[in-house]
Amino acid sequence: MTAKTQAEDHPRMPGQFRLEPSFAAEPFPHAVFDACLDPQIAEEILDWLGRDAPWNHVETDFYEQYEFSCYDATEDQAAWLTSRALLDELREILERTFGCDLSDEVSVVAHKLVSGHRIGVHNDFIAGEETHRFVVQLNHGLDDSAGGFLMLFGSKDPADVKRVLRPTNLSGFAFEISDRSYHAVSAVHSSIRYSVIYSFFAHVV
Question: What predicted TM-score, i.e. pTM, was given to this entire model?
């Protein structure tokens, strides 16, 4: 059964999203999910990301990675990741978790970090743009020596680390984007760190 067919068979909950995340208000409002996706679906997506996904290499002054918009891909896995049922479910989870009202507009981007890649300290805040983000981690099992940790900061100071999260396969991380949502990804030393990032916008009346 393909990921697309599975999504059509389960229109309300195509994945196995945990509805009661671990929420914390500091250093900025965020929530951690233990298991976001059904393992079988995740394996199909990982296989696609590793073989046929249309990656583009991007390098800036503070990060280097491969990425692409899932809306630009035509495979079944991309259709599942961008299905209306899944996007609606994620929106409901974020609204319930953060007490917000989100629009139907959603950006869905996949990231791939390989050895040597990192993402420096940043907050993602741009006035009038995305307000909430949901990140799903996908990999074949990374031990601590592989790097790629998600780090949360109390300020833009790289020494002001408040929390460190392992990139555990199937785990999720959601947060409220603001001028204090400073975070980073430590350097990847081995293996491949995949993630799918859902970015939501506030509903404007």
Answer: 0.90
Dist. CA 82–CA 104, nearest whole Å: 12
Q: Which residues pair with 184 in a beta bridge?
A: 151
What domains sit in the chain, N to C, each tagged with a CATH number?
3-10+32-202 (2.60.120.620)
pLDDT tens column, 40-64 = 999 999 999 999 999 999 999 999 9
* 3 close to 146: Cβ distance less than 8 angstroms: no
C-beta of residue 50 within 8 angstroms of C-beta of residue 192: yes
Pick from 69, 104, 83, 68: nearest CA to 37? 83
Spatial CA neighbour of 174 closest among 14, 33, 26? 33
Q: What is the DSSP letter of 75?
A: S
Please name the residue ranges forming H helices in 37-164.
39-51, 76-81, 84-98
**pLDDT tens per residue across span 154-200:** 999 999 999 999 999 999 999 999 999 999 999 999 999 999 999 99
